[in-house]
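Cross-check.
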Amino acid sequence: MDVHDDRYHIVDEQRRIDATSSEQFDRIAFAMRALRLLRPRMTVAVYPRTSSLAVERVHDRSKQGGITWATLGVPPDASRAHIALAVAELAGERRTEWVLDFLVGSNLSVGQNV
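Predicted model, tokenized:
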């Protein structure tokens, strides 16, 4: 097979994540549970946003050795999958499929401690 032949293409696997959901659940509590489960090696501040999920990571080199921290802004219509993926990326988890399946599929109740 000639890889330069126009009839052949290499396609990377892609996963589509629905960014929004009308499902009723406590999104901040869900994000906090995901953080407790995945334990990123940094401080993460979670806060409510009015629109679009936002993740910001900061590496502060002014401290001895430098420290990394992040913020996670969660809008009222964020899907479980979108929140789980954001937390997985903060935790440095490269194999996000199992994280999404576990966090989204487990449907942990709000009062459940993990």
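DSSP finds three helices and three strands in the chain. The first strand starts at residue 43 and ends at 48. Passed to J.P. for a second look.
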